[in-house]
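Hi P.,

Sorry for the delay on this. The queue was packed all week, but I finally got your sequence through. Input first:
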Amino acid sequence: MAEKRSVDLLVKNGQETDFRFPAPDYGTFLEGLARAHPDKIAAVHLDVERDARREVTYAQLFDRARRLAALLRARGLKDGDRFCLGMGNRLETLEGYLAAQLGRLVAVPFDLEKDPIDRKLYKLKDSGARALIVADDYKERGRFEEEMAELTAALPANAPMFSVTAGLLGESFEEALAATPAPKDLPSAREDDPILVIYTSGTTGQPKGAVQTLKNVYANAAGIVDWQQMTPEDRFFMVLPIHHINSSVFSMTAISRGARVILCTRYSGSRFWKLAEREGATIGSIVATIMQDLLGQAERVKAEGTDLSSFKRILIGSAPVPPATARRFIETFGIPLIQGYGLTEVNLRVTGVPVDMPKAEYLRAIDENSAGVELTWANVNVWDDAGKELPEGALGELVIRGPVVMKGYLNQPETTADAVKEGWFRSGDLGCWKNIGGRRHFFIQGRKKELIIKGGVNISPLAIEDALLADFPELQSVYAIGVPDDRYGEEICAVLVFPESLPEAEWPAAVGRIAARVKQGHLRNLGKYESPVYFVAYADRALPKTSTGKVKRADLRDLLKANPGTWQKG
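Then the structure:
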């Protein structure tokens, strides 16, 4: 048993408690699921481009993951060794995650398509990966061959490289798997063993590898199961990248509950609802940009008569959620949106809007943009810069403790130590708490480093964005960014995104109308000092984004600084 860390402390209802993985090791746990439900469908893969479908049962998933674990260990990997998964949303990626747990290894996913080669090489080398499993998920065949040559050269001597896509570089994944027996005596991950390293999607410098143990991942999974009241009959519809914390942990959560994972190769606005209808999806996970895109297609969905009744709810998070847009989504599709908060370092979700709230309280939570209450296996608080707990409504930094907090940043002990202060993980996110229905709800106001500091006054971009979206429903989305100003140091610029239905030629007039109304004091709940002074329109496709659809605000700020002549003054 690993030494207890102060950040692991968890207090619920005034009592210290702790999470215990419900089996001696992961192999015992997954084998139990496979024996109890051998013929039940565990995972479905939907290839959006080829309109193809593949499924595996619990017995098949256990067998394939166990064979993969045995294959990796036969090729020289030992307890705690890491291997990289360079694939998109494929069943093989999920099998790789489970193989790490079954073989006491550590999976390290990266984005084969969108990560530049320097970042791929950094993750491969920083993780010390001793094997690589890839698929040709590129649009450009030549680029795949060039980058694979660089990645293969960066692996240790004799390290295996398997290709899931037939006939491409590396050994055939399927042939090697078929030739490997599934032994019953594999060393399997226990509570405190690391099983996963996910690199944070930082916008500056190199990303940090968050090391997650079996206990970290499944404590969060248990909290999600409790939060969502998840049953073995649920079908979890996933379109977000599985190499990020969202779909990786949600997929393992669904498997741990004996439910079904429905994994799409990517998000497709034109096929989202039809695929979900066909698969009988009950829960889904999206981000704000997808919410906005789906709203733009509401008339088509209505005209096609798509049946959305299988959905119990759709989860949303990973980036600020505009409440006015969320309310329109709920009213348009009749599906509850359930917001939650978390980050890579705490294994996805540590707060969530309760699914059993009375309707009036739920709608209040939506309108006020609540990120919900503490989940079962986390403590959440709000501190000032001195580490003092703040009262209701006061803005500060969100801090987290409990068994969901990562083991640390790979190869970065000083950075890890800086992130944990007085037994709490410091998130770098700004927020506050408020009492709703007798429970402490948390509200996210953005990253500390994204604050706009105008004349020494801290201004939350999210408050500005919410006000603009509430007062100007013609906008698809908006981003408040601080730009250089001689008088105040920073001034506020609103980056406006209009729906595709509005021709670009009409953008200047639309921007002018909004700018004029803001200058006249049209924005509710915002004083003149907090209101945007500059305005500019961008196409959604032109915004710098991560692979999960979050706008890279630092990159957007740099884009605005490089093009000051495009700003329109209100």
